[in-house]
Specification:
The complex is a heterodimer of chains A (323) and B (1131). Chain A has 323 residues and is mainly alpha-helical. Chain A is built from 14 helices and four strands. In chain A, helix 7 crosses helix 9 (183-194). Chain B is built from 49 helices and two strands. The chains are: A mainly alpha (323), B mainly alpha (1131).
Chain lengths: 323, 1131
Amino acid sequence: MNRRMMLLSMVIGAVASAALPGAMVATHRQPSLAIDQLPIRGLSARLTNLDPATPERYLQLAEELAAETHLREARELARQLFARAFELDRLLVANRKSDGALARSAALGLASLEANPDRAAWLSACARLVAQQGASLDAGLSRQTVAPALLSPIVAADLGSALSLARNAEGRQAERYLSRPGVRQALEMWEDVLSQGTRNNLSGQVNSWMQQWPRCRTCGNRRIVPGTQTPGSKRATDEDRKPQAILCPQCQGNPGPAMSGEQLTDIVRGEALLLRGVYRSWAAQILVDGASSYRPPRPERLLMELGIDPQAMVYRGGKWIAP
Amino acid sequence: MNANLARELTKQFLGDQAASNFDPLWPETLLGLGEFEQTPIILAALVERLDRLAGFPLSVERARYEQLLKSVASQMIDGPGALWAGRHDGLLAAYRAAHAPQKQGASPAQGDDAPIALLLEQSSGEPRQLHTAGGRELNHYQSMRRALANRRALSGAGVKAAQASKGAPSDGGDAAAQEQLHRFGLMAQNLLAREGASGATLGKIDAIGQQLGLDAMVAKQIVDGILQGQAPDAGRSSPAPFAKALTAQSSSTRRATRGTAGASRSVLDSTFEPAASGTKWKHLAGVAGAAGVLVLGLAGIGWVLVTQIKSTPAPIKPAANAGGGAAGTTASGPTAPLVAGVPAGADGGSDASLAVPLSTATSTATASGTTEDANRFVAGSATDARSVLTALTRLNQQLSLGDLPEAAKIVEATATGQQAMTMLLEGWPTLDPQLRTALAEGLVQHALVMRRYPTSGATQQLAARVEAQTARLNQPAVDLVDLMRTIGAGGVAVRLLREPELPEELRKAAGAFVRNSKLVSPQAATYGDGLLAAVPAAWERVYIELINPKSTTTPAQCGERCRDFVGLARRASGVVTARSVGSGDASRMLQLQIIDAIDSVLEMPGDQADGGASPAWDQRRLSVQRSALEALGSALLFRPNDPARRSLLTWLASERVPSLGLHLLTSTLASTSTSAGFDATTVLPASAAMPDREALRSQLAERWQTPLNVSGADDASRWAISVQRVQAKLGDAKSDLERLQVAAFAAELHRAAWQLHQRLSGQSGEDASGAMGWFFPQPDAIVFDAKLMTGPSFALPGGSIKLPAQGLPGDVGAGSGGGDGLWALRYLTDSRTVGLKVAALSDIRTQGPRGPIDAEVLMEAALTTSGEVRIAAQDAALAHRENPTILQAALDIVPRVPRSMRTQRFLALLTESMSDMQPLTSTDPAWLAYWRKTLIEKLVERAALASSIGSADVLAARIAMSYGVMLGHSAPQTLTSTERQALGVDKASTSDGGAIPAGASPFGDGELASPAMLASTTAMRAGILARQTRQALAGVSRRPIIALATLEQRAASRGASAIGGPQAFVAEQMTLAESLGVLVASERPGQERRVEEILAGLDEALTKAGTVTEQIARSEIAIVELWAIRLGVGL
């Protein structure tokens, strides 16, 4: 089990009703928007009419929902549908009634929704494995090519810059970066990654930093303020005739919110993951991902890993149940 | 049709007597006839048989048997390979009509055959019958045999002239040209027989030749040959033994080989020169009449045959054994010496060995490794492969043209395809490789062509033939032919599966055979590759019988089966090139297969039904083991580089091999391999203890001048103890670094096992092995190295590695009392002059930043000022670019700095990425992303190296070096002395604890690397090793416990889900473990379950593992456990 994934699962809200033993993600966020509020025409009816015999309809609806990336609820529902489309087609592959193309598309769809690069890579590997040997694989099928749009390095760098600025009492500049397209959504989506699961309200913290530290109110980020050196300072006696200065008493010469080393470390790790750095050093990789374990792709366990009951394939009364 | 089935059907329809008279070697016995029968007699016999069949209800069996009888009759009339066609139906009808009144009593031969003769003349434009001047008809089959016996026909000017003619097709020439020559010969023969050699007749023949586009000289010489072959005494002078032999052997080389001895004096004359090898003669021989016969006698043997005939004038009796030639097939007369200077042409060792006559049923190992009992391979198909190929090629062409062919053509094609299948299943041991390949390709084309005629049933029939062999896989082999078919089916199945457009039924059938026989089917596999791959499956069928306590097969018969196996393995090995068998050659491959078989016989299990304690079984097992080891052991070669030497030394050192079995084996070797140093003193007593065995090992090693220490039991024991120690150590490992240390130890044991195996199998140089010894970490050395744990601690209670609570390594916080901010205060305060600022920057260049405040101020100066201050600040920053705090400061400030080229150059210098830098314009949207990514990568690497987790790279480098040795890499030279010490490069020791001599480090020399760089190569090296292991499967090829396709698919998918070096390494380790598991299971059939347990245990452990470091350690230990099985070392 991927330790980091487990931590992530703890901070993500619950969507799946049944948490399966050993599931990688036991819970999902609870949608706050009602199904009918999602911008898909006749969504409830279409969900209710889904039939496990036609997995392509699951896939089609999932793709429509996945297009609404700005809505967390739409993404979550798309994930549910992609996963079920995958499983239904995978079973057909096992019975030699499908070449796995649909399952592969569904797994790639899941990967595109995945904020966590580890899991996105795992899903893309499942996509590769589920397809029959005879089926043509996409030539560029890799975690790079299936990386979701929100993993854009530019957005990631903007987000990282916003965090750097917010930490260094450059709240106004941080706000400008956060206001760039997709960055706030990225923060919301990525806060679990950036915070390593140990703190689940990074976006709130960032907002707080920016409000409290638009600049250092005492030194204006100059780090020093006029003043007299404390006795014992070696400069006190040598430079009596010069203007005296001291480190800013507000920020201690280091403008920005007080932050533990652990917090700083997590942010660095988060950004490293977000930017998908490449490390030739094992030590660096272990430092970044906490020696996160490798999970071989296992298409047959995809639903379990996502915390979805493989029996619950039809949607009735607002729930996924067994047919 | 299967000989056994033919016998069964004969018994069912014609009674026990007919069945007992049936001899598969002499198909005519199905009709109750002997050889050289005239067509009316053949037809009479056929009618008699068919009439008897008519009394039975119509059934599939009856139809098949009728077809079989007709097939035999057609071949007797028209020669080997002839199919029952419409003209035969006409003949049969004519015969019935002619003999209807006399049917009750008169002999068919006494009836009126005129209608038949007339029919023969009218039946086709392709005259196939030869009539005497008196109207007496001689069948073509007979004329061919007579002609073959005529020395003048064989050595005549016609043959030589045709040989010299450029119009004659060269070896490997197209079938159409041969067909033309064949047609011409037959027509000329017919005309000459009917009209006599008058001028008019010769004119007609000349015209025919011109119409066919033949060279006039060639035509003339052929006619001359025919005329000479028609000498009245020609047929009568034919020595019966030779003719008999030829009949038995049809056109294949094996038959020619046997027949040549008796006919040597008549066949040869001085004009028959060695240069006239079979490759040329066979085409001319295929032309017509007498020359046409020549191909039957000479195909594939050429010079070897000729030389052999000269050297062995004594006649050889024809094979008497009917049941596949497995027993009782002996030759009289002196055993001919080996033919010196046998050319190793395209036919390779296989066919050369065919020419070696052996007089006893016991194989004799020779220096060439090709000697064997050729007489054992007389069973099999009775059809002429070349004729079948010609017909098949013609039919494939005709049927693929698109026009709707006549039904008879489809029927003929179907039957011809069946014949080709028969040749490929049963006839392969005696066909030359080119012919085998061509026939296999012809069959594939046939299968593809016949897709257009689904109602023909051709595909289904072919599939049924393969399915029949699949069904036989788990059954004991009943005779030689049965074994041949298993191997032949391997060749057919592997070749068929290569064809993407293969009909589905056939693909399923071939796939089922490959799957059930657990063949390794490499891509682009040939028919020959398939033969080789199927040898282990054939051995399984032999072995099933050996270990069957309830078997009624006598031990002697078991020995015969083993001898059959050796012979077939020899032929199968001979058809592949070195390319196909990896690093070894065909001889080595053969030896390994025999060693595998001996290995399983030595470890024959007890009677499972009786809990392994059945006295009756013990008695039988002893007898069976003796017979089997006599057969197999006598085929072993003990030349300096042969693997048998190492294998025997290993068996003697291995406690798993009972002394009794080794006693039997060494007893055999003492009588059959004296030249290899075996004699009465090398026979191990049946009750020998390990010291006795060790003494014999030493004795043999001394005789062979083979270093013994590399396979010593003591070394193996110590290695096993080291493995156990590593296994236990994993339980003690609480941190990532400790787990990586366990993995590094395991990798060294892995490498040591690999080295030992290389040397045992003779794949490493003796010098290197002698100098290095068998290096591996000794049990006492397997301890956690505390020095590797030094440095800032990042271990949290959960064991994961985290940055310290006070910040990144190298970060001395302002509140920590480390003085951070004091330099910043001075610099910021001394802002009045450039000189003061530069002086302050000079100070920090010397002392370095004390913490993030100093670093941030320095970085602001480096990136936001200008002139001297900027230069001095950048110089100071670059001087401390190893400090992660500097990089952290740069990361924080980079969103605020001007995006100029100067900035980019500085950042590139700071991150040591100048060579990789991609200059970006200030407006490039990727500017910030690029530099943040570059900075953060460098920051994390520097932070890691500054902490204790930096030792992870050292440990990963040790793993990389172990893998590098297995890939032939050498060790790092550019490591610092500290790094070399940490990696243990200079402190390696031999298995006996001694230091490794200078220059003989197990890590070699010369590699340029740092620990981090070496670490980054680990996954790649494991991947290469895994791929090499999978490639080795193609050579060993035995019952893969995981299908190769599955292995490949898993390997391809694993890499996609791995992020970072450690995970990528685990992915490759898993693939390597699986590949090695398949390899080990194929080499140690008795250990399949254990291998599967290890792989299943690994899978479970990896699923449960919480960290990648644990996964790495567990995977490496599993790999070592697999190696222990491969080496036969108990853990």
